[in-house]
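User: I'm writing a tutorial on reading structure tokens. Could you give me a worked example: one chain, its sequence, then its tokens, then a sentence or two explaining what the tokens reveal?
Assistant: Sure. Here is the example chain.
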Amino acid sequence: MKISFKTLGCRVNLYETDALASRFKAAGYEIAENDDDEIDVFVVNTCTVTNTSDQKCRQAIHQIRRKHPEALIAVTGCMVNHRKEELLQSGMADYVIDNERKAALFDIIDEHFRNGHSDPEGYDRDLFSYRPAFDTFHTRSLIKIHDGCNNFCSYCIIPMVRGRATSRPAEDIYNNVREVVAHGFKEIVLTGVNMGRYQHENTNFEQLVENILDINGDFRVRVSSIEPDQFSDRFLALFQHEKLAPHMHICLQSGSDDTLKRMNRHYTANQFREMCQRIKTFRPDFNLTTDIIVGFPGETEQTFKESCDFAREIGFSHIHTFKYSVRTGTKAATMPNQVPEKVKSERSEVMRRISLENKTKYFEMMQGRSQRMLIERIDSKGIARGYGENYIPIVANGKGLEKNTFINIRLCEIIHRENEEKMAFNTL
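And here are its predicted structure tokens:
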């Protein structure tokens, strides 16, 4: 049978889709592309972070049903937890499976084809019982360590759809890492909804990372998107370890204390600044990237300027800029002084230019330095592409290069790919 996966949203969703796809492939299913003519099963892993996300998910489901009227459609993910009744009543999906039972999706589908029906509600709730993803859509192996969130930011619905913070047992994580390393993966990406708050029994996030670095094997560890925290000196010292990539995507959201307060973020701009300064003290070449929301309700020209000034000061090499989008059911959706869409777009463009300026400065600083590049793909001309430990995209050309291997290179020429924002280093 052919099965196709459509994933919307965050890295946690990507991890879960990878694990599910690997499970289906191991059972003999053929993983197909969405535009293949004959597909038996579609899995749509949804996001509900904004109203726009819901709309994109609905469109994806409708398009699949229109093009493949006979296919079995299973919808899962955060939109299910938020709008389950709507999805059930629409009749567009054959199965609607919440996050807590997503790990059982293979068993649910398998039971359907064996018995002609299945009851997702009859399966146990389990956030972490995903098998290692050996056959994935990505060259890196994502490892989920945490789910849920207790922060309740005023713009965010994730605590309502992912639930309260829950940490995966540490031994399960170590075993997962050992399995994927033994299978040949060279980069492990730790992911979770708010993984900096990881705590299982006596193991916190700092200790977890340290223990993972002690696992035998030729691999490196990357920390994916993480919330700001008062990282200890012991944790920051871990970035001197050759296995731990000196890069973190730390979510700022705003450089204005006034906006941060209305967002219900639990830090000030100065606390974030001090955290970044401490990180740079341990690793001056550390690559900091971030998320910033523009056009949050009540954001003025002055508070937006504070965000811009802060972004330039810290020098984030990439800023993932979000135009604030109303999420029904959150406090921010009912706040006064909603910012017009035109103003949001203008501010988004300003922040995009700052991001490009910062990236150019960071790349210029790194020019001439050495990196350990992981080759992720090689094209038909023998050109290899991948990333260095600082999460810098690299293009290399040479004899004997192999996918999924490390090579030591020197960063030479800065090149632009496709458009000015997609910069990379050429090693020639």
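What the tokens reveal: The chain has a mean pLDDT of 91. The chain is about 35% helix and 25% strand.
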